């Protein structure tokens, strides 16, 4: 029998790669400010709590001096969880465009 808490959970995953640790740290700082009004916990990974769910961001080393963020959205409410996932997806797109534009030299 499945635990009722696990059965009522909805999960979504996102991932983003970073060329260096500084870019990852910048991303985390922006993310903290983007969700400033939500309760946050910073341990081995960043956890942002929202009503009926949470977002966990974990730093993973993929190659030498290359990092990835693994983002997991867990929610008891599918509608609100999808909304949070969409907001994070849009935020990641913004960050990717920012990094791409920073590589352009004038």
UniProtKB/TrEMBL annotation:
It comes from the Bacteria. This is Uncharacterized protein. It comes from Gelidibacter pelagius.
């Amino acid at each position: 029998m499945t635990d009722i808490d696990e059965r009522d959970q909805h999960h979504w995953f996102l991932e983003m790669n970073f060329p260096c640790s500084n870019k990852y740290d910048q991303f985390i700082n922006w993310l903290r400010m983007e969700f400033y009004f939500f309760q946050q916990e910073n341990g081995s990974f960043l956890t942002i709590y929202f009503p009926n769910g949470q977002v966990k961001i974990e730093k993973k080393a993929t190659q030498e001096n290359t990092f990835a963020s693994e983002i997991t959205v867990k929610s008891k409410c599918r509608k609100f969880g999808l909304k949070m996932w969409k907001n994070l997806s849009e935020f990641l797109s913004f960050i990717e465009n920012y990094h791409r534009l920073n590589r352009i030299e004038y």
